[in-house]
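We emphasize that the prediction below concerns an isolated chain of 318 residues; any contacts that depend on oligomerization or on bound cofactors are therefore not represented. The input was used exactly as deposited, without trimming of termini.
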Amino acid sequence: MKNLNFFEGEKGAKRIRYVISSLIISAMVCFASILDNKEAIFPEVAALTIGWLVMDKKVWNVSTFEFIIMMTIGAFAGLFISRYSPFHIYFSLLLAFGFVGVVLMTFRISLLPMISACMLPVLLHCRSWAYPLSVFAMSAIIGATRFLLVKKGLHMNIAYKAQQMDIYRGLFYWGLLSFVLAILMVIPVFGEYRYCILPPLVVTYVEFANTKSGFRDRPFQVFTSIVAAAIIGATSHFVGIQIGMPAAITAIFISTCIFFLFERFTTPFAPAAAIGFIPLIVPQEDLLILPLQVTIGAAILITVALLLYVIYPSRLTA
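Result of the prediction step, given as a token string:
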């Protein structure tokens, strides 16, 4: 009888949303495998499903239309920078970060995953147009899925409310974050420790520096979930390669483990979910070093963001 009620009630509805999210992620990975193109995999989709489908609140203050359009704009901008920027990757990453900051300020939205959409192709030298098309398709699918879930009573219908923003406060916020990030990126970029500054970690940095962030009160919990997700993703993909497991099945296993981790031990933190799927798009020889670099990067970026908040507690808001 208990098994029959597994998908009933509020908890049951959330479990359904987890299952749907896992299937969406797996479908993306399966499609990329068919194309034989890793650049069609967008790890931030895992974060988007957490924030847009699973959680019972409005994680990002943005309408469904803006959600789809902004993620797509971020992906195309990142690919353009990766393909055509005449600058060193260090300055190209700062350009991508600054571009997103300007867009979010201009349109007064808080869609931080756009940072990942824009910075990831630059960091990993993406060249394929399959990347932004995948971001558009997956964002549209997630947006449509949420609409259907609301219609079926499986998700709360939370109204979008445009936020007020002080332009000068926004300029200070993004300007300070950009300046500090420029310092933090020197060693990872020029020392070839690029996984220390993976875009989901940069999103975490921005999230923790914001005065409105509720996660700032539990930094160790967030840090633990990020590290655990990196280990789960890297280990699962490594084992999957060794035994010849299809990448789509590996994706289901990774999402199941991470979602279980969120529900049993921590509060769901969207960027951690994205970290778990980064191993699917990096070279096999990097799978062992990725969790270590993620651990170091997460520790530094979270600590620095918390220090920024201590120094400027009343001015750090987007």
